[in-house]
Amino acid sequence: MTGTTSAELHQRYRAVLPSYVKPLYAEPISIERGRGSYVWDVEGNRYLDFFGGVLTTMVGHNNPVVTGAIQSQAAKVLHTSTLYLCEPMIELAEEIAALSGIPDARVFFTTSGTEANDTAILLATSFRRSNEVLALRNSYHGRSFTAQALTSHSSWSSTAISGLSVSFVHGPYRLRSPFRHLDDDGFTEACTEDLRQVIDMMTTGNAACLIAEPIQGVGGFATPPDGFFGSLHKVLANRGILFVSDEVQTGWGRTGEHFWGYQAHDMVPDMLTFAKGVGNGITLAGIVARAEIMDTISALSFSTFGGNPLSAAAGLATLRYVRERDLQGNALRMGTRLRDRLLPVVERTPWIAELRGKGLMQAIEMVQPGSIQPDAGRATDLLEGCKRRGLLVGKGGLYGNAIRITPMLDVAEAEIDEGVTAIVETIQQMDREV
Ligand code: PMP
User: Fold this and answer.
1) Domains and their CATH numbers in the chain
2) In this predicted model, what pLDDT tens digit does every residue of 213-251 receive, in sequence order?
3) Ligand 1, residues 244, 249, 311: which to mutate, most atoms within 8 A of Cβ?
4) Best of 21, 153, 247, 276 to mutate for ligand 1, by most ligand atoms within 8 A of CB?
């Protein structure tokens, strides 16, 4: 323990950080250390971590293999830049290119998901000679000026000013979609028709790309039917419009069924972007694109920290850890266990509209009973109740009324059961209080 308290740190945080940066909880906590799926705050309280700092600690806190790789790289050299031939970066690029499914793939490393998406838009608009971009409703793609223009989520949109001309098409947030009464095929067809109309009515017909999250992260894990993006992709491909898959949250096996989110949709994107989990907490992000698209830029380009030896070493160790232990398979098994145990409770709780997601990416959305009127208050109560029971989960959703549950990819059965008990007990207590 450090001698300080979470309360004291909260005061100092509030005094020096911008007001738009907000910690979770009425009484925010300061995490001092972690091990596997558990963290301890500065007061010594232990929590089971089912959020991983927003899906970023992916293979457990202080994972000995990843921490060891970081320590041994740190003892050699921290930074060299792309001016020199950094072996961990080259190796990581080779592995990601081979895994991406994108033919003739090139990889460019950045420091954040935002910068990766920014790069994708730079490439798409240059390659297609168009400033027109398509994105989905309820999307989040980052906080830069470019990425904000692609974000259609009012609580996360800090500006509408942009040099891009962005049109938003209907996406997978089915609970609040005008097409929600349709079955899977009908829903996909209605959204595909909407895409056709938006292209024909709201663009010159020559849009650069569509950018989409296979499962919308900040948007509360809105999940489309399988094949949904394949259907949109056909419309785009016919017109030469590129598809960018934002895999910042869905990558590296988290959805259980597939390594990348796009693989549930019988299509291959022209580019994909990644970030969050691949460094297990160390800053690492990037973009994969076909060479003809990546090399469309003839000016020199450079990201000072992108692919630095330390983050590349963390990325290589994390990626190998995921693959060697088949953590995608674990995500499928543990995600199914999580869903199977939560579903009956969700179905009999009138203020929970639905459980949605795939693998270890599950969300529940809170509403006023008998309606789809969002109930952010209940989401806060659920978040706080879980914390009192020693479980950290996340919030999200268009109206801040969804709870996001994203255990580590190497989570154990007993940990899933412990987390489910905390969630179910909290729901039961909230039910008694109604
Ligand atoms: N895309 C998605 C889907 C995200 O969830 C996020 C972060 N929440 C970003 C992009 C931006 O990533 P970063 O915060 O690393 O810039």
Assistant:
1) 6-63+329-433 (3.90.1150.10), 68-324 (3.40.640.10)
2) 999 999 999 999 999 999 999 999 999 999 999 999 999
3) 249
4) 276
